[in-house]
Structure formats: structure tokens, C-alpha cells
Amino acid sequence: MDIPLLTIVIIRIYYQIEINFHSHRTAMYVCLCNAVTDTQIRHAVLGGAARMRDLSNCLGVAADCGKCACAANAIRRETLLQIEEAQSLPDAA
């Protein structure tokens, strides 16, 4: 059974980000109003939430007081950069 290349790339990106991120720290609450952690934000971005509006819709980030918006946006941007870097790695085929 052949696994499509896109599936392999997505799995590779996901695990590389997870290993890099979880190897040295634990989750941190970013949005106290909705009890959202940085790990949940990273998972949402990996799941396709590329804009702050997407994070707000799926997690409630920055939907109440808004004090978490800057931190959530920084985590979103960092995760998107990690995805881009992982996609640019040469395939191990």
C-alpha cells in the first residue's frame, strides 16, 4: 500500500514540530478567559487555523478581553514558520 507523498509530508511536519516543542517545555496558558494553552494554539495552526480569526473561531482566543492576542499571534506566527521550515527540508526518499 502506497502512502501519498502529501500525507507523509504532513505527518513529518507534525511530528517534527511536536518533538521540537515538547522536548523542553510544558504547556502555558495563553488565554485565561477561555483556558487556552500554547499547545492548543499550535495544534489548531497545524490543523489549518492560519489566521487569528481562525484561532478565535475555533478556540475563543482574543474573543473576550483580548489581552492574549499578542501572545497568541506570536505563537501562531512561530508555528507557521516551523511548518514552512519543515516543508523546505529535503525528502528522505
From TrEMBL:
Stored InterPro entries: BFD-associated_ferredoxin, BFD-like_2Fe2S-bd_dom, BFD-like_2Fe2S-bd_dom_sf
Record domain BFD-like [2Fe-2S]-binding: where: 29-75
One GO MF term: 2 iron, 2 sulfur cluster binding
Keywords, comma-separated and alphabetical: 2Fe-2S, Electron transport, Iron, Iron-sulfur, Metal-binding, Transport
Gene3D superfamilies: BFD-like [2Fe-2S]-binding domain
Keyword set includes Iron-sulfur: yes
Keyword set includes Electron transport: yes
Family according to the record: Belongs to the Bfd family.
Protein name, UniProt field: Bacterioferritin-associated ferredoxin
